[in-house]
């Protein structure tokens, strides 16, 4: 801390963490000591600000009780200017008289040492006599000291403003340099960590693996990549099956309901085929059927499911067009539409191009709301997948 006993190097006695900063300010670099010093400095600054504010307040109160007489002040200024002009004239006249009356100047080359010494002594005596005389200062109540103080204050304010702008520019440059240095330090730390890991890996390898030829190592690496590719392919197949099951079992009915004017996907998790056959009102509510009509609707939906099962068993693994032709209700149609849309988006994902939509569907809206796909900024009939891998690569 400031004021404590310091050694010649600027450190506190018995403390190896005290530093001497370039501004010649001594402080201790220990966290707790430095924080106390910092808080004391901030408190000192606040006290000065409060004192300045109190002085301004008192000055304003005094000015309110004793208003300034500007006419008298201007008259005093005129008198001061006139006095200064007269004083300048008197001093110029005295200087001219002194030049005319003085025959011997200051010592010059060619004089003997005694003469030069005598002239120097006379000049020294004259300077001492002048220095002991009272200076010609303005009278009490003269506005000249205030004007000089204002001029000096204005000059210092201008210098301070210029230094502030220069300091701000230097601060911005130093901040940019600090960011660059911090980024370089992080990169260096990452490189060092990776090199350490690589060294540990090489040190932990068995001696027989170190003696392998490059061709053998390349062959093993290719086999490892093939195994990894096979694992990724199996995982992709499993994910596709899970996605297909999710769409067929849960999502298709909700998509069909939204296409028919019903609730948005996610508002109602279970939608029956009978509800899809009956449809929805203009207000988004389910249409209700009474008596035999409801029985016929339910029977019709059950018959459609039986027909679909029979068609699937008879057709087996047919193509997409045949499967679409065999779809018997709206739920299956919505599921097939979602499958086709996802397939088209995946095919176009490699080129980062958009696909054209024939119409606005619940499937496309669901993909956009789920942050899986995005519309073209200027054309809502064009859609593409969001490139998640780009952020990982960057």
UniProtKB/TrEMBL annotation:
What keywords sit in the KW lines? Centromere, Chromosome, Coiled coil, Nucleus
Family membership noted in the UniProt record: Belongs to the CENP-K/MCM22 family.
> One GO term of the cellular component aspect?
chromosome, centromeric region
What is its subcellular localisation? Answer: Chromosome, Centromere; Nucleus
Q: Which GO terms describe its biological process?
A: kinetochore assembly; mitotic sister chromatid segregation
Q: What is this protein called?
A: Uncharacterized protein
Which organism does this sequence originate in?
Ajellomyces capsulatus (strain G186AR / H82 / ATCC MYA-2454 / RMSCC 2432)
PANTHER family in UniProt? CENTROMERE PROTEIN K
Give the residues annotated as coiled coil.
74-101
